[in-house]
Amino acid sequence: MLVKEHLNQDGLRKIVSIKAALNRGLLSDDLKLAFPDITSTERPLITDNSVYFKLLNMPKMNNFLEI
Fold first, then answer.
1. What is the DSSP letter of 3?
2. Tell me, what DSSP letter sits at residue 36?
3. Which residues have a Cβ under 8 Å from the Cβ of 13 and sit 6 or more positions away?
4. Using an 8 Å Cβ cutoff, are 35 and 11 in contact?
5. N or C: the chain end with fewer CB closer than 10 Å?
6. What percent of the chain has pLDDT over 70?
7. Is residue 52 scored above 60 in pLDDT?
């Protein structure tokens, strides 16, 4: 947003391709119609789960997850 890439065609296509990669790649019918050639960007495969365990062991997260 700061570089105003979203205001040109390539920047808008980049945003839509990122959106296509989120939430199992489901685009709305309107977006599919407006951008039929868009494919979703590749999502990185995370193999190191230590980041998630560090987040779960944070005190704030423990309070949030308590039942």
1. T
2. T
3. 35, 38
4. no
5. C
6. 63
7. yes
Token reading at 15: 């945003």
Candidates 12, 25, 54; CA nearest to 4 is: 12
Decide if pLDDT at 56 tops 80.
no
pTM, entire model: 0.53
Q: Read off the pLDDT of each residue in 5-9 and give the average, rounded to a whole number.
A: 86
Characterize 14-34 residue by residue with b for buried, 16 or more Cβ atoms within 10 angstroms of its Cβ, and e for exposed.
eebbebbeeeeeebeeeeeee
Instruction: Tell me the one-letter amino acid at 42.
Output: E
For the chain, what's the residue count? 67
What sign results for the dihedral spanned by CA atoms 50, 55, 58, 64? negative
Q: Is 47 helix (H, G, I), strand (E, B) or coil?
A: coil
